Amino acid sequence: MKKLILTAIVCVLSVTYSQAQLLPSFKLGVKGALGFSTLHSEGKLFNSDTKTGYQLGVWGRVGIAGFHLQPEAYFSSKKVEIEGTDSDSGKGTFNSLDVPILLGTRIGLGPVGFRIQAGPVFSFAQDGEIKYNNMANFNDYKKNATGIIGGIGVDISKLTVDLRYEHGLTNLTSSSSQDQKIRLWSIGVGYSFL
């Protein structure tokens, strides 16, 4: 009799969990993150040390059948310091509106879950300052860029924590002789209102 009751409980829980995965879910929240960025160039002439910037913005998540789509929009400040030849050394700040569109899945029950996400990110430059030997060169940089982003995350009730890596795909400089791309690690914390 005990085995029959235990089997019935497991069956009810399994059916309930599978039906919950088929119901659509929606979340909306805010997030903040620290970003650790470097500027890489072919030939390593312009490779930079890692510098800390930040991200502030909003996110949404629509999920069904165990998968979710998570668009975000946040202001991002990416800082770099370049050590090359004397004429190529300098500092830079790239301020942009970043819009990642992530596809992912969540593993877990109830309020606690583990996420894996990846997708494209589109950056639209707002302003910035690039200085080599005290000469501003921000006009030499493109006003938008694309990249890919991926990472892992944890949801604990309404709190979210993410660790991500962003790899730039677009050459940031308009110069055809240089190929500069941003690489960024970020760790962020978010809160879901819904």
Protein traits:
194 residues; Porin; eight-stranded antiparallel β-barrel; 11% helix
Description:
This protein has 194 residues and is mainly beta. It has one domain (23-192): Porin. Helix content is 11%, strand content 66%. The chain has 1 helix and 10 strands, in the order αββββββββββ. It has one helix spanning 2-22; strands spanning 25-41, 48-49, 51-64, 67-82, 90-109, 112-132, 135-136, 144-156, 159-168, 180-192. Strands 1-3-4-5-6-8-9-10 form an 8-stranded antiparallel beta barrel. A hairpin with a 2-residue loop joins strand 3 and strand 4. The longest helix has 21 residues, at 2-22. The protein is elongated and about 75 Å long. The chain starts with a helix and ends with a strand. The mean pLDDT is 79.
Q: Secondary-structure map with pairings?
A:
Elements: H1 2-22, E1 25-41, E2 48-49, E3 51-64, E4 67-82, E5 90-109, E6 112-132, E7 135-136, E8 144-156, E9 159-168, E10 180-192
Antiparallel strand pairs: 1-3, 1-10, 2-4, 3-4, 4-5, 5-6, 6-7, 6-8, 8-9, 9-10
**Sheet of most strands:** 8 strands, antiparallel, barrel
Q: Count the beta strands.
A: 10
CATH architecture: Beta Barrel
Q: How many H/I helices?
A: 1
| CATH secondary-structure class | Mainly Beta
Please bin the fraction of helical residues: 10-25%
- Global structural class: mainly beta
Portion of residues in beta strands equals over 45%
Order of helices and strands: HEEEEEEEEEE
Write the CATH fold name. Porin
